[in-house]
Amino acid sequence: MNSIGLLLILVLYLSILFYIAYWSEKRSHSKWTNNPYIYSFSLAVYCTAWTYYGSIGVAADSGLSYLPIYLGPILIIPTWMIILKKIIRISRVNKISSIADFISLRYGNSRFLGALVTMICIFGILPYISLQLKSISDTFHIVTKTQASSNIFTDTTTYVCLALALFASYYGTKYVDASEKRRGIVTAVAMESILKLVFFLIVGIYVTYFVFDGFDDIYQKAAILKDFGKKNTIGGITNGINWFFLCILSMFAIFLLPRQFHTAIVENNKESHIRTAIWLFPLYLLLFNLFVFPIAWGGNILFEGKGNNSDTYSLLIPQFFDNNVLTVMVFLGGFSAAISMIIVSSIALATMLSNNLLIPYGFIGSLENSSQEKNNKRIVNSRKIGIFSLIILAYAIYRLFILDYSLVSIGLVAFVVIAQLAPSFFGAIFWRRGSKNGAITGVILGFAVCFYTLLIPYATGMTNSVSLFVTEGPWGISLLKPFQLFGLDYLEPIPHAVFWSLLINIMSYAAVSVSFKGNYRERNYAEMFVDIDKYITNHENAFVWKGTAYISDIQKVLQRFLGEERTKRALTIFNLKYNIDKNITTADARFIKFAENLLTGHIGTASAKILISSVVKEDKISLPEVLRILEESKENIIINKKLTDTSNELKKISEQLKNANQELVNKDIQKDEFLDTVTHELRTPITAIRAATEILHDDEDIPEELRKQFLQNIISESDRLNRLIDKILDLEKFETGKQKIYLSKNDITKTIKNTIDSLNQLIKNKNISIEFADSNKVIKAFYDEERIVQVIHNLVSNAIKFCSETNGKIAISIFENETNIEVKIHNNGKVVKEEDAEAIFDKFYQSRNQNIKKPTGSGLGLAICKQIIEHHKGNIWSESNVTDGATFIFTLPNYNTTENS
Amino acid sequence: MKKILIVDDEPNIVMALEYTFKKNNFEVFIARDGQEALDILKIQLPDVIILDVMMPMVDGFATLEQIKKDERLRHCKVIFLSAKNKEKDIEKGLSLGANLYVVKPFSVKKLVEQVHELIQ
């Protein structure tokens, strides 16, 4: 493949990526760019050219030791649900835009610590970027079968690198606020992640199944190569310890690498996306490793003794078989891996460079009095230049220093350097006592150790040659040998450096933190970081600040960065959030923190603090006072919560009261109606009695027969009166729960028969035929016989009363199922209307539209039946949709069921 | 001979009234509810109607409304006879055009006097 052709393909490929970035930036709110899959795939920026090519190199040259770099993340990712969520929350409320912001803010918003972290990151990552450029360049020359030109102006990779630098600086600085999301870049990175995986899997399948005959074939052919066995065992305890440290290293890397912090935290849109990432991302890593081994050993078999660079086997194998399409595909996959790392890393580094180093230490003074446009332009430009120069600088490093190193060595050194941030990073979210001085001491000493044990030997190129410094130690002191510090001789250089640097780092961090208390601001942020869940909604409350400040002064500062419009809007939101009168002129702690947050995205935490401090007068607070205030604010939050709970409770109670009141009103109306009816029902017999008595009293010559009739009327009306009073009292007893039910085992058929017998005379009088099916069956149930007799008596009496005048028929039947016994009493009289079916069980319900003469009765019979049956835990109802009369049904719990329970 | 229509669904009350008014030389008609009363009124023109309020089907109030619509019955005197003794019930009864509202229980003797007063 010639250079021009490949370059054209590259240009096409890059423009597609540009277009994806452009397209998704425009649709930054659509679900295509804001979904958990884009998020998860963007995390795969972890897999760089080092993974893409380097793993194969390691697998070919030294066996399985490429695995820990993926095992570490896979092991630690399940904890993301807790840890990553916490970090995301802290970063969101504090508008954190980089790991330097994160660490420095926690330790009292320390400008120095932010700068230190930035330096460490640049120091660790810049060579790592160089490494990616190197891989692009190397593979470009392999694919085109050309030699790298020593003149940078004739080397095509120079121009590729320039294009990249322009792309990154253009798209990476779309927003002044660095904590804003960059959907374009993220979507492009996610696309590249998918492509690099797909291309890698394709070449893996090609090598395994087309060049060879599957895994078995490769294994058998590789097994006869020398060193195969030795390379492919983990090896005793020492190698185990090596593995252990490498796993730890990569666990840290997945949190701390600036590009990982950027994609996982700064670009996180929704906490819930983590849920997808914790399975998808490990799956991605596993898939990526599936074919590393076959490609590596396939290469070893094919190129045995030819001295090819094993890093590039995935390109060399298809090229060996003249498969140009596949070669280019693999190249594009590696190119994707490299550029996504370069772009995301350079954006993250440039943000840190501007927000944590250049602005707070450099041109913050010049920002103080300029206009908003000028300021924003300055900030954006500084970042643009930052990204551009970082990439160019990395290219320079590649050209000058690392033409010869294998991919893995540089990558791991970067990991070790970055790992120095681990103690202060994890301490930040879990340990309140961790202090600024502790963090600074830890990072510096840890870095110093890894500088001595790794960077010096690597940088001076002494790893590959026999060097007295490495083999004998400086000045011949063997205890100071950089690869066997203090006689620790069984670890490989990288795990060795990890061990010593982190040991010293952690010890000094802990020791200094415990010995010297941090200042109040550190303690304040410690509280906010460790207990983020408590402060998540009103985090400004947790900020402790005392002094004199005027809103107008702070407003002026804000306007210089946000502009008048946005400042005004932000103020309104703040006032609404905390219910503050907009006429208040003095600013409180919450406002100070709010203002700092607004500036943080633009100029970083440290500069935000500096700018705000310049317009306010802060009083010193002692540490105990801070602790007291924090305790109070904690209490306040608890009290607030309690108040909300109480007010909710009150709301509920008042709702209940309202309902209860409504019920009472209804009951009152019912009671009035009831009394009215009772009065009427009582007065009617009294009226009859009074009239009859008066006639008997006044009229002496009343005929004997009539006299007797009137006396008879008086007797029957008195009885009626008495019955009515009995029933009212009966019902009252049931309704107030004073009526007791005495359950005993009875035979319902017998009870029914007895009741019918007592009504026989009435039935005969009206010439009614009564039919009782199942009258021979014995059906047992638990009930109060006296009461059930009352119910049956009432229902049968009603049936008699309402039966057809001529040819009256009553049918009684019993049904039994698992749970109930059902008694059905039917008469062929008047149909109960559907709208009356329920109401007839109400007290004194008398259907106004009854098309018959008013039957005798108290109007309480069915109401009492209902009470009795319900006290037996049964049901009573009148069956609707019966057309040939009226059917009343009641149920009682089945004896078997009641017995068993 | 004066004619009187007694409308009530309580047979014992009706019996007492029937006896008393007959004894006082009235021609007595009896209806057990409002509908029956209206049927009788189609063929008879009583001087007095004694009307119970709470009756099935067509109650006393509704019956009176019907009576008032009938021009022929313009001269009929109407007495309500009711156990409902609340002011609003009495007011309603009188506003519908009844000449008298008698609360149950009542004195038969006094009722007869009131009827005599009404038709003089």
Automatic annotation (TrEMBL), chain A:
It comes from the Bacteria. Keywords: Coiled coil, Kinase, Membrane, Phosphoprotein, Transferase, Transmembrane, Transmembrane helix, Two-component regulatory system. It is found in: Membrane. Residues 677-896 form the Histidine kinase domain. SMART domains: HATPase_c, HisKA. Belongs to the sodium:solute symporter (SSF) (TC 2.A.21) family. This is histidine kinase. It comes from Flavobacterium glaciei.
From TrEMBL, chain B:
SUPFAM superfamilies: CheY-like. The keyword Phosphoprotein applies. Residues 3-119 form the Response regulatory domain. PROSITE patterns: RESPONSE_REGULATORY (PS50110). One of its GO terms (biological process) is phosphorelay signal transduction system. Keywords: Phosphoprotein. The modification 4-aspartylphosphate is found at residue 52. This is Response regulator receiver domain-containing protein.
